[in-house]
Amino acid sequence: MTRQYVADIKDRDPVKGVFLVKEKIMAMAKNGKPYMNLRFMDKSGEVDAKLWDNTDVLDKLFDKNDFVRVRGKASVYMNKMQVVVAEISRVPDEEVNLADFLPESPRSIGEMRQELRDVVGALDNSHLKGLMEAFLADEPLMDQYCKAPAAKGMHHVYLGGLLEHSLALVRLIRAIVPLYEGINEDLLVVGALLHDVGKIQEMSYERAFDYTDAGKLLGHITIGVELVEDKIRQVDGFPRELSLLLKHMLLSHHGQYEFGSPKRPKTVEATILNYLDDMDSKINGIRTHIAKETASSSRWTAHHRLYDRYFFKVNGLDGEEEPVCAREEGCQVVPLEELPPPAVQRPVPRREKQVFSNQPLRKLENLNLFGNGSNEE
User: Fold this and answer.
1) Which end of the chain is more exposed for a tag (fewer CB within 10 A), N or C?
2) Which InterPro entries match (predicted)?
3) Helical (H) or strand (E) element with 48
């Protein structure tokens, strides 16, 4: 029997397959009845799900990050696909192939790893090249670096996402450096390769992507600076100022304090890295959001919570024309010149504005309760 992946689920389809539970949240309906909000995932994507019945019993049978066998029916709600679950049961780990459940970069990991080696080999600065060679020689670390996602939910949320994102920044750097004089390209390239290196310890990615204890307590920026400092000590004669410049790029690549950046960019190279990192992250995040909308025929996406907006799917490349209203049977099209003139709008008399007053004696002024203030008898 052919496996049913999330990406294959269509509106009104029966759903019968094995998925990884990415989210599991108990909730209460307006009528006071408990229900379960679920999010299933496999390597092809993610889908929301609802479990309405027997939640008290079923809640004890599986947890977040478990594999479950699901039977239900798909439907589109608010322009998003969701599964209404009829039956669900836990599947033992040994019965599944993990590769079926974790999304991977569209690029080959082996191909990107070779590109990384080529980038390092092309560096001219001996100290920066020695630093990157120290990273490449650390096989356990590099296995993590090449496998880790770049984020939990914002961008490049798949195995190999960190490496793909870092290499994309290198290509952007090589495209813009020739446009400006005096840019330290080697420093910028190494900053791009290492700016998110701390994510190899910040995130867990053996199951659904999540944050580790170290990630929650320290964050990838702090972890990354520690990793870089450790490798710098392995490079003889690494200049102190070059070390400061590189670590500053890691500490400032989020740009602003409110975005979690311990420092703001204070060098040209750090500023370039901040903007290119932000651009590549947003482009990937928006394109991924649009790609998830295959179930909807709308020209607009569902609301993106992190960006707080809807995105227009059409960009003019596919020759798609603006939709027009279809002429229904019995509908008559009246030429513009034959339309009756618009009705004359008569002005509406203005009403006096009622002003609120909290002075209770104001209304007594005209009653002359106390005379006119003279002493005449």
Assistant:
1) C
2) HD/PDEase_dom, HD_domain, HDIG_dom, NA-bd_OB-fold, NA-bd_OB_tRNA, YhaM_exoribonuc/phosphodiest
3) strand 45-51
